[in-house]
Design goal:
alpha/beta; four-stranded antiparallel β-sheet; 31% helix; 26% strand; binds S-adenosylmethionine
Length: 269
């Protein structure tokens, strides 16, 4: 196991002014190995299955989906879940470190050989081939795109890679609650019990910077764009999706009046 980052050591490349880091391309630097390994170690996949339930799987099965492209594979949680359920799955991500970890997790959790492809969403069609019944972009991933141009480009690429009646599923943190102060600035989110906590360190209309704390007191950050729910729905409609259903999802242990996450299901036909 790697040692925890020494306080003050900038392993994630935020530099001297972390609040100024508002770039789409920075995601690869943020998911450093230490952070990713710790996350996977503590967020037990079985508990994650239990908290997430069968929602995505049911949505896919109800639509007769067979081929799925997981565009935000990360360490492979959703890809493995899809393979277990018998979906023909391709696992893409822009980060080669994430894909390496996903591949190894696939073997560990059930002996699955993941079909991994390194691809950035903005140029997805260049690196991933074929068309799919469904594309999933889960685990609050779309939030890593910092400009509207990048968001439109990514959605257009997703749209193009879906069959005529395909479906796109994107989830996101409930940033409206955060931006509008419904939660207050000190709201702490706990993942799987109390082991990993996430708190907003800074929030403005252009940046949600979260601090992640682990039981060994190590800390990591992610800089994300605070997507408003209706803004994402509008973008999806504007790239051509015909029907968008948004669900509130209580994934974490804190349950206030508002859901912590939203799930958008966008249909092409
Ligand atoms: N779905 C996984 C989960 O829930 O555990 C992983 C989610 S992780 C929060 C976000 C993933 O999106 C990271 O693996 C990151 O490398 C990937 N990502 C972020 N921006 C991307 C982009 N522009 N193109 C491709 N992948 C990207």
């Amino acid at each position: 196991m790697r040692s925890r980052p020494i306080k003050g050591q900038d392993t994630q490349g935020f530099g001297t002014d972390p609040l100024a880091v508002r770039e789409t391309d920075h995601y690869k630097a943020e998911y450093v190995t230490g952070f990713v390994e710790k996350w996977d170690e503590l967020i037990d996949w079985k508990r994650r299955y239990a908290s997430e339930g069968g929602f995505f799987i049911e949505q896919l099965k109800a639509r007769g989906v067979r081929e799925v492209l997981d565009v935000a594979t990360g360490t492979g949680f959703h890809s493995v879940r899809l393979l277990e359920e018998g979906f023909d799955t391709v696992s893409a991500d822009g980060s080669p470190e994430m894909l390496a970890q996903a591949f190894s997790n696939g073997l560990t959790y059930g002996g699955h050989i993941l079909r991994v492809v390194q691809a950035d969403w903005r140029w997805l069609n260049r690196d991933v081939h074929g068309t799919y019944d469904a594309i999933i972009c889960l685990g609050n991933s779309f939030t890593h795109l910092f400009s509207e141009r990048d968001r439109r480009k990514a959605l257009a690429e997703f749209y193009a890679m879906l069959k005529h009646d395909g479906v796109l599923i994107i989830d996101q943190r409930n940033y409206d609650a955060l931006l509008d102060g419904t939660y207050g600035n000190s709201h702490t989110y706990y993942y799987c019990g109390e082991e990993v906590s996430a708190e907003p360190a800074h929030v403005d209309e252009g940046l949600a910077r979260f601090r992640y704390r682990f039981p060994d007191q190590s800390e990591y950050h992610l800089n994300m764009f605070p997507l408003r729910k209706n803004y994402v729905r509008r973008l999806m409609r504007e790239v051509g999706f015909q029907r968008i259903n948004t669900y509130g999802d209580f994934q974490e242990t804190y349950q206030g009046e508002e859901p912590d996450f939203f799930v958008h299901i966008a249909e092409k036909a």
